[in-house]
Write a structure and sequence with these properties.
Elements: H1 8-22, E1 35-40, H2 52-70, E2 74-76, H3 86-94, H4 99-116, H5 132-147, E3 151-161, E4 166-168, E5 173-174, E6 177-178, E7 187-196, H6 202-207, E8 213-214, H7 216-226, E9 228-238, E10 244-249, E11 260-263, H8 270-273, H9 276-291, E12 317-325, E13 332-338, E14 349-352, H10 358-367, E15 375-377, H11 383-386, E16 387-389, H12 398-407, E17 411-413, E18 417-419, H13 434-447, E19 451-457, E20 462-463, E21 465-466, E22 476-478, E23 484-486, H14 516-519, E24 520-522, E25 528-531, E26 535-536, H15 538-541, H16 545-548, H17 561-567, E27 572-576, H18 583-596, E28 617-621, E29 623-626, E30 629-630, H19 641-648, H20 650-659, E31 666-668, H21 674-690, E32 695-696, H22 703-721, H23 725-741, E33 745-746, H24 747-757, H25 762-772, H26 789-792, E34 796-803, E35 806-814, H27 819-828, H28 830-836, E36 840-847, E37 851-857
Helix pairs in contact: 1-25, 19-20, 20-21, 22-23, 22-24, 23-24, 24-25
The structure holds ligand ANZ and zinc ion (ZN).
């Protein structure tokens, strides 16, 4: 097979220049009548340049954009740079340069590489989050949320990474360690910080995941993070006092079995209710907990949200000397304090039901507290998962033993069962199933004002303060009393001063705090003021960038409402699942917040049940691995796309990456396989160079080629829509094999193949379109070919078509096609249509599976 003529470098340079000259990729946002917004997670422009993993992700998104365009949409496919943040800042410190100095050359390098790969980006609408023209509006977003009551400052326990020298968000803590410093335990520090009230939307953020068209694994991760618990809030009176203790429980059905209460060590009521005799024991216990090293792995410090203290840990706690009244039994129950109850979850207080909850059972066992059985277990095969007991349960006769042990208070049971010992004069749960008992208990509590059904979420407010330099300053000014005032919108941006020493000092204050000239300012009312010195979390920059793309150079507004309602929600968003609970949750919150502030109204899209959801569809792409392990810098197995593109061409690299495996699952990068794609594209090129002289009218193609072509059109279209690129490429290869061995080709075949190749190998397709198929306009202004459904059914038969009993043509139809369909197919056949045109049809005879005979007159 000769490679004569295929010079990827020349082809790619030619068409990239042509696209730029002709503005092929630029869309008129205001004029679009059939808009399609395809978005990919924009990159952080690192000094190392584009990673082949980025190329993998972007190619998959670019195929969507190019395909939709061929389907008649005006496609907006923007790109930008997420250049603020610790990552850039740490790198700058490492190489002893200023980040502001490094970013422009990194962006220039990324731009070169992205252009080289032939993505359909509209370069007129690109953004750089570190430019004042961009972050002016990031600060504006903050102010909108502030006005809507969604931004607040609070001094609470936050996650502090000593190596980062800053507070980080809950989402950036992985198993108690910093996501950037996997060996560094995150500390819990009391610091004044700014928060976004994401918890206000917890219910909505969770519920929308039930219908939104996103990758399942992304939705699952987000649901887990939001962490809805369905249960009830119950109020307990404190004996002899006016205070009430409210608990959150997922098991209101077990209220009759609540034999004590436990409060978190830092529960605010603790100082009030502890009895004189127990005050010092309580305070000693609290001190002992505080002094323990902050740790989230079974230690006794306060854990970040989501981290449960290890189950096998021996329980500690002390009696407060106070008693509460169980509202169901009317009995007095002791109130304890223990660190297995966390202040940051629910209400920071629990009703302890040792017969139903293993942690409570362990605690009751250790401190000799009463256990009251309130459930008759339904013991199944999985009994062991639901049991915890004082003694070792014998496995032989366990099933029988369990029920007896639970009723004797020798074991706790968390599995299914029937309520027992659960009645008072007003409410009777006995004999009910767990769910029935929950509902009845909630109804009773509500009727008595003692509680209500309620859901609790693990999600906590988003801490956005960073005590670092490389981010947009939070637009707040303090007066001399320390009250916060928003910076007036017409004074934005609050520019980041060009600090030479931007290293964090680790004192809990940002580097801007060492810049008194910058801090000193004036309040709108003329009083002296002091600027906030924290900068905003990098995730805020990326939480609204898809809005800014639409108005990238608009000095008057963050985004144009008309464009927002025309283009949003984004039709297809593609990115990595590592952002499931960070970026993807924050963006959803930001849109809900901006909508609440009256600052955002998106358009309507089919199937969208919430007007503030920014992404109609989201698909998480897979990961690229190399020899079995994830490609990453630390493993030293990162592949540089420059060398590969230079050697084989961007089209080959694009197509190779898409051919590695299912796009949504990822694939293994093996360098040697790239030659297979290179040879394929060469053969395609040669075929076009040789074929046109063989072209015949469509009707004269052999049937097997026709069927193959129509099946391929159907398959490639639906595969692209399902992001199944590897199978689409296989289908193109098969079609090409069949076509190149065929005696003849037709115009429709040659054009269809070029169009179908175009999303994958845009440069070569453009070359073919112009040089061999003779067009003067872009292949991307062509129309995706239509397939004939009758030709694509799997089980087909070939029928002879006769006109006045003479065979004139052959058609392929579905074996099960009915007479009407067969007749229609016969009449529509190009040859037959010509033969019978202008004649009277007397009769049509269909012999199933064999022939059609059309009798005509005249
Ligand atoms: C009584 C009860 C009886 C409970 C029973 C469980 C089983 P999830 O599913 O994680 O939401 N709880 C509530 N707040 C807590 C806190 N701040 N720290 C530690 N534990 C807390 O768990 C909810 C259950 O965990 C609640 O339901 C409560 O114990 C406990 F047979 O209440 B339960
Ligand atoms: Zn860190």
């Amino acid at each position: 097979m000769s490679e004569v003529g295929y010079d990827p470098k020349a082809v790619e340079e030619r068409w990239q220049a042509w696209w730029e000259e002709n503005g092929t990729n630029n869309v008129d946002l205001h004029a679009a009548t059939n808009p399609y917004y395809v978005l990919m997670m924009f990159p952080y422009p690192s000094a190392e340049g584009l990673h082949v993993g980025n190329v993998f992700a972007f190619t998959g998104a670019d195929i969507q954009g190019r395909y939709r365009r061929l389907r008649g949409h005006q496609v907006f496919e923007p790109i930008g740079f997420d250049a603020f943040g610790i990552h850039s800042e740490n790198f700058a410190m490492k190489v002893n340069r200023h980040p502001a100095e490094l970013i422009p050359s990194n962006i220039a390098n990324f731009t070169r590489q992205l252009t080289m790969m032939g993505f359909m980006f509209d370069w007129n609408k690109t953004v750089d989050t570190t430019s004042p023209e961009y972050y002016k509006w990031t600060q504006w977003v903050f102010l909108q949320l502030y006005k809507a009551g969604l931004a607040y400052r609070d001094t609470k326990e936050v996650n502090y990474c000593p190596d980062c020298g800053t507070v980080i968000s809950d989402e950036q803590v992985i198993d108690g360690k910093c996501e950037r410093h996997p060996n560094t335990l995150v500390q819990r520090r009391m610091l004044p910080c700014w928060f976004f009230r994401i918890t206000e939307f917890a219910d909505r953020l969770d519920k929308n995941l039930d219908w939104i068209d996103w990758s399942e694994r992304t939705k699952l991760a987000q649901k887990g993070w939001i962490g809805r618990s369905t249960g009830a809030e119950v109020h307990f009176a404190v004996a002899g006092r006016s205070e009430k203790i409210t608990v959150f429980t997922t098991r209101p059905d077990t209220l009759f079995g609540a034999t004590f209460m436990v409060l978190a060590p830092d529960h605010p009521l603790m100082d009030v209710i502890a009895s004189e005799g127990q005050k010092s024991a309580v305070s000693d216990y609290r001190t002992s907990i505080k002094s323990q090293k902050p740790n989230t792995e079974g230690g006794t410090g306060v854990s970040p949200v989501g981290a449960e203290p290890a189950a096998d840990k021996t329980k500690t706690g002390v009696f407060t000397g106070a008693y509460a009244i169980n509202p169901a039994t009317g009995g007095q129950i002791p109130i304890w304090i223990a660190d297995y109850v966390l202040m940051g979850y629910g209400t920071g207080a629990i009703m302890a039901v040792p017969s139903g909850d293993h942690r409570d059972f362990e605690f009751a066992t250790k401190f000799d507290l009463p256990v009251q059985c309130i459930i008759e277990p339904i013991v199944g095969e999985d009994w062991i998962e639901h049991t915890s007991s004082l003694e070792t349960v014998p496995t032989s006769d366990a099933k029988d033993a369990i029920a007896a042990w639970v009723s004797a208070g020798r074991a706790a049971w968390s599995g299914p069962g029937t309520a027992v010992n659960s009645a008072n004069a007003e409410v009777d749960l006995n004999g009910l199933s767990m769910d029935e008992a929950k509902a009845r208990m909630c109804a009773w509590l509500e009727s008595k004002g003692l509680g209500r059904a309620k859901d609790t979420f693990r999600l906590r407010d988003w801490g956005i303060s960073r005590q670092r330099y490389w981010g947009p300053p939070i637009p707040i000014i303090y007066d001399e009393e320390g009250n916060a005032h928003p910076v007036p919108e017409d004074q934005l941006p609050v520019e980041l001063p060009p600090l030479l020493d931007f290293r964090p000092k680790g004192d809990g204050r940002g580097p801007l705090a060492n810049c008194p000239e910058w801090m000193a300012t004036t309040l709108p009312d003329g009083r002296p003021g002091r600027r906030e010195t924290d900068v905003m979390d990098n995730f805020l920059d990326s939480a609204w960038y898809y809005l800014r793309y639409l108005s990238a150079h608009d000095d008057e507004q963050a985004y144009d409402p008309e464009l927002v309602s025309r283009w949003l929600p984004v039709d297809m968003y593609i990115g990595g699942n590592e952002h499931a609970v960070l970026h993807l949750l924050y963006t959803r919150f930001i849109c809900m917040g901006l909508e609440k502030a009256g600052a955002l109204t998106m358009g309507k899209k089919e199937g969208m049940q919430d007007s503030a959801e920014p992404f109609h569809k989201f698909r998480a792409h897979g990961l690229l691995v190399r020899e079995g392990s994830k490609m990453s810098k630390s493993k030293g197995n990162v592949v540089n796309p420059d060398a590969l593109a230079a050697e084989h061409g961007a089209d080959t690299l694009r197509m190779y990456l898409m051919f590695l495996g299912p796009y949504l699952q990822g694939g293994d990068f093996r360098d040697r396989d790239i030659m297979g794609i290179r040879r394929f594209l060469s053969r395609v090129h040669t075929w076009y160079a040789d074929s046109p002289q063989l072209a015949v009218p469509d009707g004269e193609l052999s049937n097997s080629v026709v069927v193959k072509l129509h099946k391929t059109i159907r398959k490639v279209g639906s595969d692209i829509e399902n992001l199944s690129y590897n199978t689409a490429i296989s289908a193109l290869m098969e079609l090409h094999n069949e076509a190149k061995n065929a005696e003849h080709v037709s115009k429709f075949l040659c054009e269809s193949f070029a169009i179908m190749l175009a999303p994958f190998a845009p440069h070569l397709a453009e070359e073919i379109w112009h040089t061999y198929l003779g067009y003067k306009t872009s292949v991307f202004d062509a129309e995706w070919p239509d397939f004939d459904p009758a030709l694509t059914v799997e089980d087909t038969v070939e029928l002879a078509v006769q006109v006045n009993s003479k065979v004139r043509s052959r058609i392929v139809v579905a074996r099960e096609a009915n007479e009407v369909a067969v007749r229609e197919a016969a009449m529509n056949d190009a040859t037959i249509a010509e033969q019978i045109s202008g004649k009277d049809i007397v009769r049509v005879v269909v012999v199933p599976g064999r022939l059609v005979n059309i009798i005509v007159k005249g």
